[in-house]
Amino acid sequence: MFGNVFIILALIAAIYSVVMYYQASNGNERALVFARYGYHTMAALIISACLFFLYIIVTHQFQYKYVFDYSNADLSTGLLLSTFYAGQEGSFLLWLVLAVVAGIVLQNYTSKKQGLEPAFMMIYSLVLVFLIAMVTPFFKSPFNFIWLEASYTNIKYFNQSFLNFPFLQNFIFTDSKSNQSYVQMGPDLFAALKSNGIAIGDFLIKGKGLNPLLQNFWMEVHPPILFLGFALSIVPFTFAVSALIKNKYDQWIKLALPWTIAASVILGLGLMIGGYWAYGVLGWGGFWGWDPVENASLIPWLISVALIHTMLIQKQTQISNKLGRLAKTNLVLAVLMFILVVYSTFLTRSGILSKASVHSFEDPGAAVYVFLILFILTFTFIGLGGVYYRRKSLTGLNNIKEKFLSRENGLLYGSLILVASALVVFVGTSAPILGESVETSFYNKMNLPLVIIMGLLISLSLFLRWRETDGNNFVKGLIPSLIISILLSVAASILLGINDFLFVFFFFSIIFTIIVNIQMLIRVFRNGFYFWGGHLAHIGFALFLFGVLASGTLSKSQQIDLPLGIKTKVLNFNLTFVGGRAISGSDKYAFDINVNDKNKSYTASPIMFISDFNNELMREPYILEGFTNDLYFSPISYVDKNENNPAKVEHISLKEQNNAAAVPSEILTVEISTKPFISFVWIGVFIMSIGFVIVVLRRNRENKILNL
Questions:
Q1: What is the pTM of this model?
Q2: Each residue's pLDDT tens digit, 689-706
Q3: Which helix (H) or strand (E) holds 620?
Q4: Which of 25, 111, 400, 695 sees the fewest Cβ atoms within 10 Å?
């Protein structure tokens, strides 16, 4: 009850803040004070709601449906806290509170910029109105009690000492097929318990718990980072719309650029942490499967990177013209970046992708479905409608034209490639809406030439100057790096066994990007680390692409039966299954495999178990990580012929195989894969993130120097 009261009061305060900021934007200075009061009241209420939410989670108050559905008393502290955002309602609340806290910083930031705060915070607060509305009792509140809706819940979650009470017999039913007993939850049961003096918290004593796939350290890290990226995506959108409201475009790019870069790096980092999580937990051996839910977050990230580069073009050309080049383009991309975040929320939360994606949430109901569409349409109309309304004011540069060989054009074409890639992913991801799905090969085939061109443009643009570049100087500067890159790419392709022409060309673009950016990094090294950011980001991106190419094309895998105690050679490794063992303190079983590789010995221990959460067989891979190669063990099945039911993982025999000549009674089936140079994926992302952070620091420093 308290949580819903906090949320509803916060919604009222947010609407009040929007109205007051609107009046302040029309010249009412007194309204600005009340608008700030409204915003900070709303922020205090949302933070209070989140603290109360954490309280009911850690105190195991299972009478709240969300707490019952996603937590139990057996979870570690970290995982218990992570159940805050395990479901739809909690993840919406996480997005909301991160946006609210960011808004506190932004309110203070914009208050110091003459005339900026009213229009900016009006739009920002309006976005928060929609986010708050999503977690009200009318849509997806995490504070709803479990008895508000009729449902059948397994009898194992209830206090057994109460189940024989006569008044409860009308609420207990047994399924004849499964022979499982259930309690009919609903308002009638709650009324019956209350009239008999039994608190629902004493009757319902267990929670369903967290999905085993989510019981991982990265569950504690990945969602908060990703949703922080979602929250920060609101900022460039709000800067753009506030510029449209004021019809003034000379400063918003410089102010929004650091925030856009920050949003991009955090969103990208969240995506790759999710990829690492999938690689280490799901057991299919990859980190990116072009799953529609993965793609839905990738699309706004691609747009954000394109926006950063087009912002740089406008910022640079504002030296000669107050408006700058690509003024319309930047406004549109800033709008699309946020709209596509909301669209990704629609795809993942509406239930549309429930059959096409392993990550999608179930159908939340017609009301939420319609509200998400309204969310998208409202801010699309505000953003793109504003650009259309101000189209005559957004004339761009009329009297200055860059030559073809200019850095502006290099950045522009690179941005177009990023937008094209986003469009490809958008089309493939949205296909399930029309009842169709595309194969993963669609994304690979369409994106490969785009990535090759992107890598070449990254390098070529660094040899270009702003406005105009002398052709002879361009060629002279280019040739040494080009020759070195060709020689290295040919030699490395032969050494690694890459013989497909398109992949060789891809490899060349990667090496060319690395060589050129190292060359440029050396050139600016003495200027201070503020000038290293862009080059580090490009080097990191190239290393990431190398990891993707090498691990994707050179990977080998084999499914094999490993009899107990018998040495088997697989992919040039000698493997011996030495037996299974119960993991202390859990219902999991590890299957130990001795791995011998050139006089080096390791032990790999993939895991299988029957989960109480869904009564299904769960598998956890084991990865022997190396700098140049990962050895990936994905368990398939285990059979013990001495057991009556060998298909059950819990019937693990730990008997030693004393006689090696005897026929083994225990067989472990695993899929073993090699992942060459996959470490470069993670190394590249790390270096790219450092580069982005340095760029943010540089742009903030420039704004302080300019007193912006």
A1: 0.88
A2: 999 889 888 887 877 766
A3: strand 617-620
A4: 400
